[in-house]
Amino acid sequence: MRKYRTLHEYTEQYFKKHPEEIDAFLKESFEEYAKDGDSRTLLSQLRVIARVKGISAIAEQIGVTRQGLQKALSEKGNPRLSNITSILMAMGYHLMPQRMDAPAR
Question: pTM to 2 decimals?
Answer without folding.
Answer: 0.83
